[in-house]
Structures are given as structure tokens and as C-alpha cells.
Design a protein that fits this description.
Elements: E1 4-7, E2 18-25, H1 26-32, H2 38-48, H3 52-65, E3 69-76, E4 79-85, E5 92-101, E6 104-113, H4 119-124, H5 127-137
Antiparallel strand pairs: 1-2, 2-6, 3-4, 4-5, 5-6
Helix pairs in contact: 1-2, 2-3
Amino acid sequence: MQDRRGYRPPGSADQADRVLLMVFNLQVMVKATQSPTGLIAQWSLFERDHSLNGWTGGIEQMWTSDGLKVALIRTLPHAKIYLLKSSTPSDLIELTAFAVDMDQPLAIGLDACGAYADEGRLRQAGILDDLATMVASISAIQPDPTNIDPALKD
């Protein structure tokens, strides 16, 4: 199952300068995943509270206890966008958004590497605004178990 695509901006001479965009419906991902991942923990938190504020509140607590530096950078009508940084210096920053639509948990992630691992550059290049536009327009679709590789089993 391909759940993400990577992009290297035009004119980038270094392979390390890239942006990776990922979009997940956590409900679908959990059913298709055989091994536990961070998505499983986020799904578990959603099962406890289906509201955006309740769900993201649990995720914020989980991140903080994991030692991540977290900043809420945008709140949209049905979504929140966060900036995450490791506590150790890194050439990677993550923008992660969570949305709830049709009672389904959606996650949108943007990993910025190399020269793009700078919040100021992401803002200046319009990448943060582009992400916010995508997040604002995200909506859940009814999953088709026959159109997933591997197919979901009941």
C-alpha cells in the first residue's frame, strides 16, 4: 500500500532537500496494518474520544511524554496543525495535522528535510499555507475494502 509521496523541490541540488507528504485515514490504516505502530496509539486515543479536541489532547500528551517539542501552529474548523521537532538537533521537522470528518480520524503529515527543515523557510516558501489549504479541504471517503492492497478482511 502506498500511503505517501516524496518531492524534491526544483533547483534543489541536494537529495537531502526534500518534502514528504503523507495522508492517512487511521481507521483504514489500522485495519490494514499487521504490526503495531504510532498510528495504533493515535487510533486508540481516537477510540476513547472522537472529538477533535479530545483526540488531539491525548496525542499532545503522548508526544510530550515522548520528549517531542510540539507547537500548535494553526487551528481550522475541523482540524489542527502542529509543528514537531525532536529534542536533539536534526535536519528534519514535521508538520502534522489531524482532522475528523464523518467520524473518521484523518492525519496529514509533511516531513521537511535538509534545507527545508526550517519553519521560517516553510512559511516563506508558502509550504505551510499550502498544507493548511489541503488540510482545510480534506474529507473522508467511504473505504472500499476491495481497493486496498492488501484487501481488508472482515
